[in-house]
From TrEMBL:
Family, as annotated: Belongs to the histone deacetylase family.
GO biological process: acetoin catabolic process; epigenetic regulation of gene expression
Keywords, alphabetical: Acetoin catabolism
Name of the protein this chain belongs to: Acetoin utilization protein AcuC
Pathway(s) per entry: Ketone degradation; acetoin degradation
Chain ranges of the Histone deacetylase domain: 30-325
Residues making up the signal peptide according to the UniProt record: none
SUPFAM superfamilies in UniProt: Arginase/deacetylase
GO molecular function: histone deacetylase activity
InterPro entries, per the entry: AcuC (IPR003085), HDACs (IPR000286), His_deacetylse_dom (IPR023801), His_deacetylse_dom_sf (IPR037138), Ureohydrolase_dom_sf (IPR023696)
Amino acid sequence: MAKHTQNEQIKHAVFVYSEDQLGYKFSETHPFNQKRLVLTIDLLKEMNALSDHNIVPARIATDEELLLAHDQRYIDIVKKASRGEISPESGESYGIGTEDTPIFENMHEASARLVGGTLTAVDYVMEGKAQHALNLGGGLHHGFRGKASGFCIYNDSSVAINYLKKKYGSRVLYIDTDAHHGDGVQWCFYEDPDVCTVSIHETGRYLFPGTGNINERGSGQGYGTSFNFPIDAFTEDESFLEIYRTSMKEIIEFFKPDVILTQNGADAHYLDPLTHLYGTMNIYREIPKIAHELAHEYCEGRWIAVGGGGYDIWRVVPRAWSFLWMEMNNIPLPEGKLPEAWLSKWQPESPVRLIDTWHDPDNMYEAIPRKEEITDKNQQMLNKALYMIRNA
């Protein structure tokens, strides 16, 4: 693959990252593992798709900025927990000190840096320094105003959306393709007519957080600006992408945003240990491609992207997130094998055999016996959702 120049890269997108983002670490055994950032960056560098000139540092969000989506009391509790001044038991009512979101040293600073990374991405795009910006350390979509949830302490997307509204007067379309429902962001803007939240996720009948039903449409002035597409367990690529392509074209035409913010969890893949969807690398090639096209067609290219879930950090996340960055920069998506240098470097450390190709191997899983039933069920859900959009 030909090497891209610094000017070409910056013209298209910036990559927000600081090593300090690796400090968001609950424990050695916790499924949320920011090692995936290191693996992704190293893979992109081996592909000559990313250089240090393209990377801009993530700053720490201020308390004033965190207050755009969180209560002062909650921020104070997180700070005390960071210093070891509260017990796990006393933190549980705030969602910290739990099995999902345990307390760790300097958790406030680490969490605020993930938020600051997304705000950095926002400023680069909205100030015209780049058409697109990516903060893979962000995407913590389960955080609530006064409570942590689902590995998420501060909700960087919710802070960033209010920041976009306050500083730039923007009308924001938030698109979440994480396998888990983007509940924290949805509820933050459930009554806001200037923010449209879209979530395509595994149905809450089987998976945390249990929300994201099709009838969660928003309320008050925000009614009709919340869209959920709960798909059945074992959903495969074709059905997932049909829902994404069809719904997004109708929603963006209906809402007409100024900017798009996408959350790019990589946990809808078959190999992800925490979910039950049967996606392959095909969806991670197509999702950013469609978002990219929509951003240029409706938002003058303004597209901010964050990371999210993704718990097979060796075989899935680095490839999926590499596709996202390459799409942002108009770099042709690779075929064939991954760089041998990357495979040789990381295979000794990986607890599983790395997949050595950009595409998933054929016959990665056995045929789903209920495929037709699952597809039909998803199609009925999509038809009902489209009816709601068209009659909003």
